[in-house]
Design brief:
There is one protein chain. With 312 residues, the protein is mostly helical. It folds into two domains: 19-170, Orthogonal Bundle (Tetracycline Repressor, domain 2); 172-312. The protein is 76% helix and 0% strand. The chain has helices at 3-11, 17-23, 26-42, 49-73, 75-78, 96-117, 120-140, 148-152, 154-157, 159-168, 173-196, 198-204, 209-212, 214-236, 244-265, 273-304. Helix 11 packs across helix 12. The chain is flat and about 55 Å long. The termini are far apart.
């Protein structure tokens, strides 16, 4: 073994438990777990607490598998983006082959165990979700079209449908509405991120809308999608998953969200860079609260329904 090889081996950072956890994208996983749990708990009928716990665990493992497969495939562009350069694979702590192995193994485990613990419908939707995120979005859409986040957003919208299927064994209008809420929320959420992280995507050659069509077009798209999202969110309030609590949350947050999108849209490109950055970042942070609050309100309505207090 040469001295260079020895030095390379000595200097190679060792992977710790935290690196393998990071490989599973725990922040994304937390959103998946929350929305899947809301879908499960909002569904009609009762699920044994142990079965419900196992189902959410396997859904979380499936989400982690998707994250590992994403990091395996995207290691080259992650390495040149400031936001992702410290991820385990580009940082050299976990090899690409290890990430692939973890992703494939956890995918098989999650889908199989969810099938055995619940039903084939929930397992099939989970399997399709992993495939959609890892193959359709990561391998195809992300590097091919500026509509990557619009179509690819479906991957993050499936978890409440999986939770609903765990409880009911099927799909319904209510679960589709929860899917649609996340699906329509995803573009303005990620485009706001792209506005103040545009150089990252440009350097990596990712055709985000900000890169291919510019900031002005992106801001217009954010505003339009936010208006459509508001209509959908308020409309969901008069369905079976809505109620007075949900509607109150939806009215306030959608007013704030539309106002934030309008502030982004009306900004002049000649405005001070710091001002633009602060407005865009504030909208991005609001988008996180927006989704958690809407699904929290759906959960509150479901919790009160057995007491005759939830819903209309």
């Amino acid at each position: 073994m040469s001295d260079a090889t020895i030095n390379s081996t000595v200097n190679q950072p060792e992977a710790g438990f935290g690196d393998y956890v990071a490989l599973l994208k725990p922040r994304v996983m937390s959103l998946v777990v929350f929305t899947a749990a809301v879908g499960l708990l909002a569904a009609p009928g009762a699920v044994h607490p142990f079965i419900a716990f196992c189902a959410i665990l396997f859904i979380a493992i499936g989400a982690g598998a998707s994250g590992a497969l994403n990091m395996w495939w995207d290691a080259d562009i992650d390495a040149v983006m400031k936001r992702t350069a410290r991820r385990p694979v580009p940082a050299g702590k976990v090899t690409a082959d290890e990430a692939l192995g973890v992703g494939v193994a956890l995918s098989g485990l999650a889908v199989t165990m969810l099938w055995l613990a619940t039903n084939w419908v929930a397992a099939a939707i989970l399997a399709f979700t992993i495939f959609f995120y890892a193959v359709v979005y990561t391998m195809w859409l992300k590097r091919w079209t500026p509509q990557n986040i619009v179509i690819g957003g479906a991957a993050g919208a499936f978890p409440p449908m999986i939770g609903w299927a765990v409880a009911t064994g099927g799909v319904s209008v209510e679960s589709v509405l929860m899917f649609a809420l996340i699906f329509m929320w995803t573009p303005p959420h990620f485009w706001a991120l792209a506005l103040f992280m545009n150089s990252d995507y440009e350097n990596a050659g990712v055709p985000m809308l900000t890169v291919t069509h510019g900031r002005r077009t992106t801001r217009t798209h954010i505003f339009v999608y936010t208006l459509l999202l508001a209509v959908l969110a308020l409309g969901a309030g008069v369905t079976a998953i809505g109620g007075p609590i949900y509607m109150a949350v939806a009215v306030v947050l959608n007013a704030m969200f539309v106002l934030g999108a309008w502030r982004i849209w009306r900004r002049d490109e000649d405005s001070a860079a710091l001002d633009k950055y602060l407005v865009e970042k504030k909208f991005f942070r609001l988008s996180l609260l927006y989704l958690f609050a809407h699904f929290g309100a759906i959960l509150a309505e479901a919790a009160l329904r057995p007491w005759g207090m939830g819903g209309w």
